Amino acid sequence: MKRSAVVIGAGLLGTTTSWFLAQRDFDVTVVERRAGPGLETSFANGGLLTPSEADPWNAPGTFGHLLRWLGRENSPLLLRPRALPGMLRWGWRFLRASRPQPHLRSTEATLRLALYSLATLDALDKQLALDYQHLHRGTLKVFRERRGLLDTQRLAERLRPLGLDSRVLDRDAAVALEPLLADAARDLVGAIHYPHDGSGDAYLFTAGLQRHAQAAGVRFQFDTEIDRLQAGARSIQVLHSNRGDIRADVYVLAAGSYSPKLTRPLRLALPIYPVKGYSLTMQAAHGRQLQVPVVDFEQKIVIAPLGDRIRIAGTAEFNGYDTTANTARSTACLQQALALLPKLAGDAAGEGKVTHWTGLRPMTCDGPPILGATPYENLYLNTGHGPLGWTLCAGSAQLVADLVASRSPAVDPQDYSLARFNS
Length: 423
Ligand SMILES: Cc1cc2nc3c(=O)[nH]c(=O)nc-3n(C[C@H](O)[C@H](O)[C@H](O)COP(=O)(O)OP(=O)(O)OC[C@H]3O[C@@H](n4cnc5c(N)ncnc54)[C@H](O)[C@@H]3O)c2cc1C
Known about the structure:
Radius of gyration: 21 Å
Distance between the termini: 39 Å
Strand content: 15-25%
Largest sheet: 9 strands, mixed
Number of domains: 1
Bound molecules: flavin-adenine dinucleotide
Shape: globular
Helix content: 25-40%
CATH class: Alpha Beta
Number of strands: 20
């Protein structure tokens, strides 16, 4: 008889996990509080598939930036003073992990998973022919300050032996690759092209894969909210939901930023903090579509072509589970993007031309996600992917499904284990 598995959450991570568990012959049910898949953080993210962004946000020196930006509405990273009491423990670990050695270790671990993930995504593309506007044109990271360019170049060289390809470009070569940069080119000191990065619409992917998973026998129970995981001494016994109790042989928690809320009553602390970000989506006028996704290094924003649309995303706000849309933050994002690509201003002008969105990145204190086993023998985790959940989803899901099925994963899971926080 097939073993049964329940996945909590139908975002990028839960949906991909359900697919790979079904492929390993599990009888799978996905439980999701929303009316469909991918409607929370996976809905309108930056769209980038970027092993090149493997370095976690707590790079050495972050503390200085945080202090400088404290309370400033238009800064790339905003720490609300009222959020401080709720994030002391996480924040302390975030800063501890920003020492050079731990930071490099986390970067390398994330890069290994990201490269595996993009290969897994390509294999899924071949198998399922999903249509999510997947581009393989790399990303172009642009710099206004030489120091940022040199530091990033140094890191890229260090990561090359692990498989991260990159090419430094001068201003003219950057404009040749992305002609829409021509107007702002005089402000740039150079760029780095990462040819193996990609882009695509994470929501279209999630919704498309959900349909395939359903066709393969996975049950999706929408509008169902898990209130509590009930545990015995060594295992989870039952999930209590607004629609009754749910039982299975194994459970995979993929509830994004809300995962720690579900494990806390079990005395299982997941060091994940919800980091708010914004995106804006607009229709690209004919002939004004980007050729290559652009990453603005100093402003920490990304601008990606998604079919006939353009997606701009960025900013990080530490403000607990607050999901209210702060238009000052998203408007700052838009203005920064238009300063870099002024030709897009026409596409953004006028009532209702731009759709604003906000989401909570489930961010671990050291960068990599938390994958695999817990002290409860039938509870597994696939959560904490922070700013890289789209990039990491396919690899993480395949890895977790392998662990649940007692197979050896293709990537060593140790660097992503919950146990790493005890050492
Ligand atoms: C502005 C922004 C830009 C980003 N850009 C990029 C990018 O360019 N590239 C990249 O790789 N990543 C990017 N990310 C990160 C990426 O979007 C996330 O890491 C990813 O979406 C997380 O997916 P998830 O499945 O873990 O969480 P979610 O998508 O939030 O899914 C979790 C699901 O669990 C459900 N759930 C929660 N609690 C319960 C419960 N109690 N009962 C039932 N269901 C529950 C929720 O409803 C939700 O659907 C970005 C994020 C943001 C905010």
